[in-house]
Predict the structure of aldehyde dehydrogenase (NAD(+)).
Amino acid sequence: MHTLATLAPALGLTALQRGEQWPAASIAGQAHYPAHIPLPLVSPIDCAGHGELLPAGPAETELALATAQQAFTQWRLVPAPQRGELVRRIGDRVRTHKHELAALITLEAGKIISEAEGEVQEWIDICDFAVGLSRQLCGLTMASERAQHRLQEQWHPLGVVGVISAFNFPVAVWAWNAMLALVCGNSVVWKPSEKTPLCALAATRLVQDVVAGFDAAPAGLLGLLQGGTEAGRQLAADRRVALLSATGSVRMGRAVAQTVAARLGRSLLELGGNNAAIVTPSADLDLALRGIVFGAAGTCGQRCTTLRRLIVHESVADALLARLQAAYASLRIGDPRLPDTLIGPLIDHAALQQMQLALTAAEAQGGTVRQGGGGITQGVPNTGAYVAPALVSMPAQTAIVHEETFAPILYILRYRDLDEAIAMQNAVSQGLSSAIFSNDVREVEQFIGPAGSDCGLANVNAGTSGAEIGGAFGGEKDTGGGRESGSDAWRAYMRRATNTINYGSTLPLAQGVKF
Ligand code: NAD
């Protein structure tokens, strides 16, 4: 099994073998770290410390932003297909280090191996997508109302893109943003989660010599600022950050959005979810069961798209609950480095405490814990925060069900008619992911129609989690309204200029105005 000591050389993290403070690094565009409060490097597998890393302060943020701003002024002039070529090379590089990087994600975020490899695969996939996109940054040509005039729009590079990311996707969220930002002609400054700084460092190091070996790429194109809330605040407040893409809790999004709005900047928010699946009487229960268990218990309940509410028709509720209980009892919980483990640890003991508080609140609000919920110390590295995923029957959608608890708790609610189920699903403040399990075309169309699910993602006979990069990813309401990754999400990373071109010898005014 991998440890940091065995992985470090392959990922350029050798200093960690000595458990020393991280030295000032010489990554292109990476700031140097003076003495501020160190970030502990902790693995959730056993909550053991692996050393410390010194975070950036105001001076380093200033340096990183100034360098990124300078890099942008050069990079925006490089033709987009050439920018795509850099991203193609980055994708090739990631392919050759997929397993080592995934192993580091497992060590630092606690994901099981196949999910960690899936996360790196998302980086590879978004590279491929971005390479194609680099030849398709298209604008429209519109009919002008004036003779010998032409109207067109162009999409131009935007500036420095700031990326704040959460611990649970320590590499993929940055990659979705950074690979698109690069082909769109922008530079990037990344402030990763303080809980997963090594993944960020490894990802940055992986691309550093690719960038350095690409003649057209200026230094400072991909910057890294390690730190916590304060580093994120500085990024949000700085006018040089043309777009701030922030992924994390609703609480963080509210703070960041207000700071960015106060300077009339742009933000792209990917915040918390409280995702539901509706199971109708016509559902294929075998298929639904698989989607529900992976959605609710996978990643130990720590995905923004984790299934948190199951809204099931009363005619199938008992049968489904019995099958869910059996499936949950068979889940293998333990060290995520072991190949047969399905559920790894929570990120830390604070998350375990939050889970216990939520379960206590659910019981006080009339709920019954049907399965799981307790901490696990047998057969696991017993200093980690391991839990049995919980199934909780609720009599109604009470206050605790409206909250996103970032842990594997699935609240089960019953319904009689589909209107009631959809209303229940939409009643929460978050609007990220949703699903219906049904073989009835009318139910399906109602669910995905204009009066159906109000979420950014509405799936049919597929669970709430595990989105592909080809679609635009994001959610409504408190989830923040941002869209990342596929479809036309690239537009957020560019500015649109409308050009009116008069190729005649007179100057007619629009709307027939005489002057
Ligand atoms: P978090 O909000 O605690 O932290 C996320 C990031 O924001 C970190 O880098 C943190 O340092 C930074 N941050 C926190 N407060 C800040 C502030 N006031 N100003 C600037 N930066 C600040 O979230 P977390 O615990 O790391 O991740 C879990 C949360 O993220 C969940 O709510 C989950 O649903 C959400 N999430 C959403 C998506 C999505 O795409 N919608 C994806 C992953 C995670």
